[in-house]
């Protein structure tokens, strides 16, 4: 990619976003571990020194990229109106919608999955990984409350953890196999199984 003209002027935040976009592009093609700062600046079309102007280190970029992509993914998650749907039907729609987003644009989700694993083994990124998990769990809890399930708060929290784990597992399975038919069938089975469990535990 050609380098930007020296006359190009952007704010620090614009430069940072430009490098984050380039990092996502390169990581989608090569993986996180194989992505170098030079490859990122080349993809962004900026001098190598621009990276160090915007980020203290590659780890700092990974931190910001993980945070940004988590927020982006969460912004479109669980955008469903529970009115008129049973819990089982609504859960099925939510899970299928998530899988559809992953199938449509798998690259960012592959990078996000790899970044999340890396964060769990890096002391400097571990808290960000925990933050990511809490944010997703809170989203699921918010949706469960909107369904007004007749369950104690503790059981709702446990249910949110199970649903989140299920969605993560289904997403990882599709990213590995790219088998649309199997992922759709598995999502239907998951939603119906959780739905039956919830119905059996209604007070």
Automatic annotation (TrEMBL):
Does the record's keyword annotation contain Repeat?
A: no
Q: Sorted alphabetically, which keywords does the UniProt record give? A: DNA-binding, Transcription, Transcription regulation
Xref: InterPro entries: Homeodomain-like_sf (IPR009057), HTH-type_TetR-like_transc_reg (IPR050109), HTH_TetR (IPR001647), Tet_transcr_reg_TetR-rel_C_sf (IPR036271)
Q: Name one GO molecular function term.
A: DNA-binding transcription factor activity
Is this entry keyworded Membrane? no
Q: Which ranges does the entry annotate as DNA-binding region? A: 36-55
Question: Gene3D superfamilies under this entry?
Answer: Tetracycline Repressor, domain 2
Pinpoint the HTH tetR-type domain residues: 13-73
Domain of life, source organism: Bacteria
Q: What is this protein called?
A: HTH tetR-type domain-containing protein
What is the species listed in this Swiss-Prot or TrEMBL entry?
Glycomyces algeriensis
């Amino acid at each position: 990619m050609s380098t930007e003209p020296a006359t190009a002027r952007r704010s620090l935040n614009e430069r940072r976003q430009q490098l984050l976009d380039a990092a996502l592009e390169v990581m989608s093609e090569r993986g996180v571990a194989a992505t170098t700062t030079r490859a990122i600046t080349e993809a962004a079309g900026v001098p190598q020194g621009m990276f160090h102007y915007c980020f203290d280190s590659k780890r700092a970029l990974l931190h910001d990229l993980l945070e940004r992509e988590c927020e982006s993914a969460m912004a479109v998650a669980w955008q469903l109106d529970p009115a008129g749907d049973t819990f089982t039907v609504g859960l099925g729609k939510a899970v299928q919608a998530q899988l559809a987003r992953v199938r449509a644009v798998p690259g960012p989700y592959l990078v996000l999955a790899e970044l999340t694993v890396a964060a769990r083994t890096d002391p400097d990124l571990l808290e960000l990984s925990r933050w990511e998990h809490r944010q997703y769990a809170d989203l699921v809890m918010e949706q469960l409350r909107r369904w007004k399930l007749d369950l104690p708060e503790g059981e709702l929290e446990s249910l949110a953890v199970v649903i989140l784990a299920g969605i993560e597992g289904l997403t990882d399975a599709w990213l590995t196999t790219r088998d649309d038919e199997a992922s759709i069938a598995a999502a239907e089975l998951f939603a119906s199984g959780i739905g039956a469990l919830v119905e059996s535990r209604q007070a």
